[in-house]
Specification:
This protein is mainly α and about 450 residues long. It has one domain. It is about 85% helix and about 0% strand. It is built from 16 helices and no strands. It starts with a helix and ends in a 15-residue tail after the last helix. About 60% of the residues are buried.
């Protein structure tokens, strides 16, 4: 594959996925805006308390989808469709298992989860409603993530993007309709979010109706080897999403102790905008995954190296643009979600936006490097990056810096963590480089 061919394919896949992921992330951003406008800071607090559960559902879908689709792309590169179908079938089994767990939690544990997430009496009812409905819609979220990943890896990134954007646009329109004309409150917001993946899957069905799908259900049983393989590959996606939820949970607790519900509402603005920004980098990462995995299966290390360089350069450029925009427009961004014109909420949110998003270049580097490791069927370094970002550094950093600098320390914990992880990730890349397929060695066959 020549330089121009690599660049053309990179632009095709990443542009589609960046647009699609931005659209997908608007699930929560639309909720944030309409809930803030329709229900005020109480609704915004309830939404932010419930986001960790959404992150867990979304992360589980990405773990199954990204892990299985990576294995599918490798098998596709090796011209082995039968094994690819076995991978897809086992992924469907796994998604059904997780869906059962989430539905049971929604039916029997919604109250306990709401209390665990820290909702007080003023926001308990709204938080419980959001949690219960999002859990009951979990099969749709899981199935949508699975199909998006497989359709993208099946040579249809445009359709995958169209499905993500269609789902998100419908979410925005239904949010407005249910919250304002229908006056359905928090239930309307979460109901709109739950319908979005169903609409997305209707778009994806075109791939099957036109018989373009190279994967299908196979008559096979569960394979522990396959499940372990794509769980391992997809684990960084789950860790990233779950850690996002855990970070929100920890930050909510710290800000509740420092500033009360107003602090949590302000963090809701920062955290939800962060979901959109991270989605941009995730779009680049998901865009390079099918290309790298396919070239890995075909033993084309030169193409892999070029794609990685394009991705890192793109992330650096996007980081500069994002940070400049957030820093320049922090006041109007915060005001957009501050429907009650609360001056304290405005001040906290503006400070948070300016400090929190200094992490942009490090986040982009970490997300793409993690995707590179998993796409080449070498998950341990990706696990290390994800665990450092999500658990081992961010939580102690939040408590340490908030103890030193108060609210400003909470905001600085995120960029400080991402910087340290970026340094560690670069070191891991250099240490593992001899094993990585950049110098022409054949990729090992995994069994």
């Amino acid at each position: 594959m020549g330089k121009n061919d690599c660049l053309k394919e990179f632009l095709k896949y990443t542009s589609m996925n960046v647009l699609g992921m931005i659209g997908l992330s608007c699930y929560i951003l639309a909720d944030t805006f309409f809930i803030a406008a329709g229900l005020g800071s109480g609704g915004l607090t309830a939404l932010n308390l419930a986001i960790p559960v959404y992150s867990l559902i979304h992360g589980s879908g990405l773990m199954i989808g990204m892990g299985a689709a990576t294995r599918y792309a490798i098998q596709k590169g090796r011209k082995n469709p039968k094994e690819g179908n076995r991978v897809f079938t086992n992924a469907v089994y796994a998604a059904a298992f997780f869906a059962g767990i989430f539905i049971a939690a929604g039916l029997f544990a919604a109250d306990a989860l709401t209390a665990l997430l820290g909702a007080d009496e003023t926001v308990f009812s709204m938080t419980r409603t959001y949690l219960k409905v999002i859990l009951l819609f979990s099969p749709a979220f899981l199935a949508n993530n699975l199909l998006l990943c497989f359709v993208r890896n099946d040579g249809a990134p445009q359709l995958s993007m169209a499905a993500m954007i269609s789902g998100s646009l419908s979410n925005i329109l239904l949010d407005y309709l249910f919250i304002f004309p229908c006056n359905m409150g928090i239930f309307g917001a979460v109901f709109a979010t739950g319908l979005a993946p169903i609409i997305s899957m209707l778009i994806l069905s075109v791939h099957f109706i036109r018989k373009k799908n190279g994967f299908r259900l196979a008559g096979c049983g569960l394979s522990g080897r396959l499940l372990a393989g794509f769980f391992s590959i997809g684990a960084p996606s789950l860790i990233t999403e779950v850690s996002s939820g855990i970070v929100i949970f920890v930050f909510n607790g710290i800000l509740l102790s420092l500033l009360g519900n107003t602090g949590v509402a302000a963090y809701g603005i920062v955290a939800n905008l962060s979901l959109v920004v991270v989605a941009v980098y995730t779009g680049v990462a998901q865009g390079i995954q099918p290309i790298i995995s396919r070239n890995y299966g075909m033993n084309k290390p030169g193409a892999i190296a070029k794609i990685l360089r394009y991705a890192l350069c793109s992330a650096a450029l996007l980081s500069a643009v994002i940070f400049i925009l957030v820093f320049r427009y922090a006041h109007p961004i915060a005001a957009l979600f501050n429907s009650e014109k609360d001056p304290l909420l405005q001040t906290i949110a503006v400070q948070g936006l300016k400090l929190y998003f200094t992490a942009c270049p490090f986040v982009g580097f970490n997300v793409i490097l993690s995707a590179y490791f998993t796409s080449t069927d070498f998950a341990p370094p990706a696990h290390a990056i994800s665990l450092l970002r999500g658990f081992f550094l961010i939580i102690p950093m939040a408590y340490l810096l908030s103890g030193i600098w108060g609210t400003a320390g909470v905001w600085c914990a995120f960029p400080a963590t991402e910087l340290i992880v970026a340094i560690a990730g670069a070191a891991l890349f250099l240490l593992c480089r001899k094993r990585l397929p950049l110098r022409g060695e054949a990729p090992p066959e995994r069994r």
